[in-house]
Specification:
Helices cover 37% and strands 26% of the residues. The chain is of the alpha/beta class.
Length: 252
């Protein structure tokens, strides 16, 4: 599904160069739920931006479904993102002038889906995520948790290959965060959605099947959940975060 091979990313020029990513390599299997963690400045958001083609790598390659995204021409990037990637952002990024149904259906409309099928597909995914009863409402009329569910629905309604989530619980209260994480976990299990989630929160990361830890732009460690219960992997995550050093409060 996803292969990140010896990726490097530099910012700046000549006498003031920052190495944000330092020869990072890993693979994500089809249907995996991966969390990426690290302190501020560790490179986790830069990594997500490079995978999503919102930023370019300085060296290395990133393959999605066998296609090297680093070689896609600028004029083809927007189409690639629409067809292959689903995005869930911290701030929801819903259009205030559209209902939730219209927000979710935007991805289908842009990709020229059959208009006769759009409503049915939107209603199906909304039912899966528990927001079928608020589809006719506008974003300002629903809760933060319902907005984020709508954002998740928009991300998966077009059957994109990869869902990229950037701090998806960052703007939610603890109850809404738990509900969203359980929904994402169920999405992963029931629809085989492949998810890469960047998070600073150990609780959120404990829902993933594998957790990658970055430090100073390098892959520091990884944990696999396997058959472990979520509380057990949660405490293991905390142990690794403690080993990362620095201000652990930045990543917990």
């Amino acid at each position: 599904m996803l292969e990140v091979n010896q990726v490097e990313k530099y910012y700046g020029s000549k006498n003031n160069v920052t190495k944000a990513l330092d020869r990072i390599s890993f693979k994500v299997a089809d249907g995996e739920f991966i969390a990426v963690m690290g302190a501020s400045g560790s490179g986790k958001t830069t990594l997500l931006n490079c995978i999503s083609t919102l930023d370019s790598v300085s060296a290395g390659s990133i393959l999605l479904d066998g296609v090297d995204v680093t070689e896609i021409k600028e004029k083809d990037l927007a189409r690639f993102r629409r067809e292959k990637l689903g995005f869930v952002f911290q701030e929801f990024n819903l259009l205030d002038t559209l209902t939730l149904e219209e927000n979710i259906g935007v991805a289908l409309t842009i990709n020229h889906a059959d208009p006769a099928q759009v409503k049915g597909r939107v209603e199906k995914v909304a039912e899966q995520l528990g927001i079928a009863d608020v589809l006719n409402k506008f974003p300002y009329q629903v809760s933060g948790g319902q907005k984020q569910r709508a954002a998740c629905a928009r991300a998966i309604v077009n059957h994109q290959s990869l869902i990229l989530a950037d701090e998806p619980t960052g703007a939610l209260d603890s109850k809404s965060s738990k509900n969203l994480l359980e929904i994402m976990s169920r999405m992963n299990r029931e629809t085989a959605a492949t998810i890469v989630m960047v998070t600073h929160d150990a609780y959120s990361a404990s829902y993933a099947s594998r957790v990658l830890f970055l430090k100073d732009g390098r892959l520091f460690n990884e944990l696999r959940r396997g058959d472990k219960k979520r509380p057990e992997i949660y405490h293991e995550i905390l142990d690794v975060l403690a080993l990362l050093g620095g201000d652990v409060s930045d990543v917990i």
